Amino acid sequence: MRRPPAASTFSYSFGPGPVTPAIKVLIAANVAAFLAGLVVPGLTLVLGLRPADVIEHSYVWQPVTYMFLHGGIFHILFNMLALWMFGTELERLWGTRYFLKFYFVCGIGAGVLTVLFSLMPFGFAQQVYYSVVIGASGAIYGLLLAYALTYPERWPSPVPPMDFSIASCLTFEPLDETRYPCFSLAREAGRAGGTLPAVLNAADEVAVASFLAGRISFLDLYPIVADTLEHHQPIYRPCLEDLLEADRWARDYLTAKLRN
């Protein structure tokens, strides 16, 4: 006896659907640049956006090439996920040519604004002047804004909206500070206050730049930053000049230590 057909079938979908041409090329270029950075660590210092190099050495390509570099697997994973989820519908809506124009205007514009911001006469802006900026976040934020502004004139999503009355259970666990020891350093410096947070920030930037350049390993980051904090004589009621001096001292101390 023949069985009757099933009364219902199930299908599942996620995201905006198939990858569009421009998204496919952009993801491939970002992944290729990420792998190249792993093979050639010094690539970040040449292709990453460092305002000092743009101004003083005319590295005019950096406001473009920095968009294709990423600092780690989760950095590129989340950026490419956002590019696919939000950029795919925008490319279908606008067409490939206009989408690429918008993407690069946002990314390059973010790079140019970073350079201009670093020239402002403030201590925090001067830190950006010597820092290395990488990632497609400037372009991605532009896509997020465009995605919101085009609502509801975009392709309907096959995925139903999130029902927070159903997915209302969120679980949080204590941070494993033995696995992430730098978190303890940041918390202790923040609690102590004074010039210690400025020293922590400066030491972290120098250490991360050295790691990206291949001069130290990932496991060297914590002891290097901790050593800088231990050798600093903090001021607990600092003025702006004290904070700038603490920042300069930490950078000079750690740079000399790494050079030796």
List the keywords.
single chain; 260 residues; mainly alpha; Rhomboid-like fold; Rna Polymerase Sigma Factor, Chain: A; 12 helices; 61% helix; disordered N terminus
Describe the protein in words.
This protein is mainly alpha-helical and 260 residues long. It has two domains: 21-149, Rhomboid-like fold (Up-down Bundle); 181-259, Orthogonal Bundle (Rna Polymerase Sigma Factor, Chain: A). The chain is 61% helix and 0% strand. α6 (96-118) packs across α7, α10 (196-212) runs antiparallel to α11 (221-230) and α10 packs parallel to α12 (240-259).
Quick summary:
The protein is built from twelve helices and no strands. The chain is mainly alpha-helical and 260 residues long.
| CATH class bucket of the largest domain | Mainly Alpha
Classification by helices and strands? mainly alpha
Beta content comes to: under 5%
Q: In DSSP terms, counting alpha (H) and pi (I) runs of 4 or more, how many helices? A: 12
CATH topology type of the largest domain: Rhomboid-like fold
Mean pLDDT across every amino acid position = 87
Task: Please compute the radius of gyration using only Cα atoms.
Answer: 23 Å
Order of helices and strands: HHHHHHHHHHHH
Looking at the overall shape, the CATH architecture of the largest domain is Up-down Bundle
Residue stretches low in confidence (pLDDT < 50, at least 5 long) are 1-13
Distance between the termini: 85 Å
- Superfamily (CATH H level) name of the largest domain: Rhomboid-like
Please give the domain count.
Answer: 2
The largest pleated sheet is described as: none
Assembly status: single chain
Q: Please state the overall shape, judged from the principal axes of the Cα atoms.
A: globular
Number of strands: 0
Could you estimate the helical fraction of the residues in percent?
55-70%
